[in-house]
Each structure stands twice: as C-alpha cells, then as structure tokens.
Write a structure and sequence with these properties.
Keywords: DNA-binding, Transcription, Transcription regulation. It holds the Pfam family GntR. One of its GO terms (molecular function) is DNA-binding transcription factor activity. This is GntR family transcriptional regulator. This protein has 268 residues and is an alpha+beta fold. The chain folds into 2 domains: 64 residues, Arc Repressor Mutant, subunit A (Orthogonal Bundle), CATH 1.10.10; 192 residues, Chorismate lyase-like (Chorismate lyase, 3-Layer(aba) Sandwich). The chain contains 8 helices and 11 strands. Strands 4, 5, 6, 7, 8, 9 and 10 form a 7-stranded antiparallel β-sheet that branches. Helix 1 crosses helix 3 and helix 2 crosses helix 3. 25% of the residues are buried.
Length: 268
C-alpha cells in the first residue's frame, strides 16, 4: 500500500466490502479496532470512512456504529385510488393489498393513541383553532421486516363525542377508520388532498429508519380528508424514508395493466 494512510484504510475496507468479506448489513469494525489494526489515529480512521459513506457503501448509524449498506428494493405506493378496485392511497387495506401485489410482506406495528391539543400545524390541517382537543393515532409500518413508514392520523375530538369511540382505542378498526366514520356517524369521506414534501429526517426518524445521519431525507405526505359537506375530518401525516420509497400517480384513463406497479423482481 502507498499514499496517505487514511486512503489505504479506505481502500482496504472497500475491497473487503466488494469481495463480500463484509456482507451487506454487516457492521464494520469499531473505530478502536481499526485504529489498532492499522496503527492509525481516530481522525485518520474517520477520514478513511468518509469516501465510503459518500459512495453509499456504508452508513453511519448514531449510537450503533457503521454498517455496510444493504441493497434496497424500493416499495411503490400508489397515491391515487384505482377507480375499479378502490385500492390505492397508501392507507390501511390499500397499503396491505398493494404490498401483496408487489410480492412483498407488509406488517403494521401496534397502534398508539394520544389525546392532545392541536398544534398550529395540525390545527391548520383540520381547520380548527390551535389548542382544540384532538385524537391522534400513531402506527409504524414495515415491508419485508424493514421499517418503511411512520403514520399519524389526527381527528377532531368532536367525532368521538358524537359517537366514534373506537378512535380512542389502541386497536385496529376492522373496516378501517374511513368506513367506520360512515357506519357510525354517517360521515362519508368523499375526497382527500395530498401535499408531499421532502425534508431532512428528524433524529427519532433517523434512528427508527436506520438512516445514516442528519443529511438523510424523508418524504412527508400530509393528507387532508374531506366529508361531503366540505368539513376536514382527518389529517394523516406519513413519513417515508427517501431511500426506499417511490410513488405512483394515475390520472385519467390508464390501462389496467399499468394501474399498479409490477412485482419488485420485474422492476429494474
């Protein structure tokens, strides 16, 4: 080996990754181990890791270590509803069905219910005053065992007071919240508006999604649902890490075989 020591260390680690000696998902030796192996200082070891991080070959996970990047097969969420099947939108049964169509294994974490006062951000989405009582239902979602999204749905407390008591329970609503509100209260969701934006991941999101650092990006989908009389009955906010999610939007007349994404093994 020749040249700066940090470059020699970096090239050695790159060779181990490319040969499979360090497999996808494997943890790299600790900084202390690398310092002892190569007789290098801590700053030299950290400098050696930077080219690997920049190439996407490894990811540094705060508090856990540095890991060989796993090959990610993106999951495609159809944001629009299929007019023939009713599937689409990335929620509930539609999300599970779409995973099945793509030959992926979907799993939802337990539901957590929170009673809170609407923040200005949530209040704008629900069309209420800040400080208005609301019910929030939070859930983490997984594809093939990997964290894929985090979703929070916020409802005005007036829906609970009117009789939609299941919103307060930390259980799955069998028919889904949309059908439940129609069955119990006669409030029918007739449309929704999506706002999708990109932003840096919050620290808790980076930890949950196992992202590499403060520069990691997530897509945030803000969905406002409307009843037939124009009321805002729900605000659902979903965070999707940008490295493993894609979105599909259909508009107008789209052939049946193009309405949904193909199974992952058929995508390049």
């Amino acid at each position: 080996m020749s040249g700066p020591l940090w470059r020699d260390i970096s090239e050695t680690l790159r060779s181990r990754i490319e040969s499979g000696e360090l497999a996808p998902g494997a943890q790299l030796p600790t900084e202390q181990d690398l310092m002892e192996e190569f007789g290098a200082g801590r700053n030299t070891v950290r400098q050696a890791l930077q080219p690997l991080i920049q190439r996407g070959m490894v990811t540094a996970q705060p508090g856990r270590g540095t890991f060989v990047t796993e090959k990610i097969d993106p999951f495609v969420t159809t944001l629009t509803e299929n007019p023939r099947t009713g599937f689409g939108g990335g929620e509930g049964a539609a999300y599970m069905s779409e995973a099945s169509l793509q030959q992926r294994l979907a799993r939802n974490g337990p539901i957590k219910v929170e009673l809170q006062m609407a923040t200005p951000y949530i209040a704008r989405g629900l069309g209420v005053e800040p400080g208005t009582p609301i019910v929030s239902r939070h859930q983490e979602r997984f594809i093939d065992g990997r964290p894929w999204s985090r979703q929070s749905s916020h409802y005005p407390m007036t829906l609970v007071e009117a009789g939609a008591a299941l919103l307060l329970q930390a259980v799955d609503i069998d028919q889904g919240p949309v059908a439940y509100l129609e069955d119990v209260l006669g409030i029918r969701q007739v449309g929704y508006q999506d706002l999708v934006l990109g932003r840096p991941a919050h620290p808790d999101e980076a930890a949950f999604f196992r992202l590499s650092g403060p520069g990691s990006l997530v897509f945030e989908q803000r969905r406002t649902a409307f009843s037939i009389d124009g009321r805002r009955i729900r605000l659902t906010v979903t965070a999707y890490p940008a490295d493993r999610n894609r979105f599909l939007i259909n508009e107008g007349i789209v052939p049946e075989d193009a309405m949904s994404p193909p199974p992952s093994k058929e995508r390049s």
